[in-house]
Design goal:
about 160 residues; alpha/beta; Leucine-rich repeat, LRR (right-handed beta-alpha superhelix); about 30% helix; globular; ATP5S synthase; LRR_dom_sf
Length: about 160
């Protein structure tokens, strides 16, 4: 469950960091080359000092219920969803409807997420600043040609890299 009180108290980036790390994901802050993975090692400092720039959710248990934590993030340019068993089409729809992510997100990788189908991939067309999309090992995608053509049409500047059997 999303703790909106916590988001107000510590700011969206800190609250999202806590949620992501509790779920097993990693975050990287603006201006830092280092991935943050230790919940107890989260940096402290003035409210809003640390802005999440990248999220690596490999093998994490993030799910739709927590996606409200992403709403306030204004600086995320890069998200990797790999082997996330709870990520499904609704998550990708939610991601693409998040106003801040529509503005900031440039790179997205979706790898080995078995519950993602064509519907979820098509929903990504709302991420208008997306420059790079990597899709790999997604057995739920059935209409590859149609799906990718529609996505390319909606996002003509998108570099789409596919590794799908």
């Amino acid at each position: 469950r999303v703790d909106h009180e916590r988001i107000r108290a510590v700011g969206p980036d800190r609250a999202a960091s806590e949620w992501l790390l509790r779920c097993g994901a990693l975050v990287r802050y603006q201006g830092s080359p280092k991935w943050q993975q230790d919940y107890n090692g989260l940096p402290t400092g003035p409210l809003g000092k640390y802005k999440i720039e990248a999220i690596n959710a490999t093998d994490s248990c993030i799910m739709y219920r927590g996606f409200d934590y992403l709403d306030g993030l204004e600086h995320v340019t890069d998200i990797k969803l790999e082997k996330c068993m709870y990520i499904q089409d609704e998550c990708l729809q939610r991601l693409s409807e998040t106003n801040n992510l529509q503005k900031s997100l440039q790179q997205l990788k979706i790898i080995s997420c078995g519950n993602v189908t064509d519907k979820g991939i098509l929903a990504l067309h709302k991420l208008t600043n997306l420059e790079y999309l990597y899709l790999s090992d997604l057995p739920g995608i059935r209409e590859k040609e149609t799906t990718f053509r529609a996505l390319q049409q909606a996002l003509p500047n998108l570099e789409l890299e596919l590794d799908l059997e």
